[in-house]
Description:
Layout: E1 10-16, E2 21-26, E3 31-34, H1 42-45, H2 56-64, H3 67-102
Parallel strand pairs: 1-3
Antiparallel strand pairs: 1-2
Amino acid sequence: MKENIHPEYVECKVTCSCGNSFKTRSTYGQEMKVETCSECHPFYTGQQRVLDSEGRIEKFKRKYGSYKKDREEKKKKAAEKKKQNQENQKNQKKQEEPNEDKK
């Protein structure tokens, strides 16, 4: 094997966003920061927990959450418009009928 080509394998401190920290060895460096660890990951804890970073879930709900409500409102407006058009057509026919009788 060639010598002096491999990175140093040093002890480093890993800190999780939940506050847990532990020591391990890595070629990465002295300190690492991670989002999940074995103390807070649902696979290891057995609890389902939503990890929301930077409000992504709220952003999604704001963008797509009102989709169903908006769709229902559009359908309701379209039905009202259709009903109004039908009434307008009936009124026009009624107005045309007396004009035909006079001729």
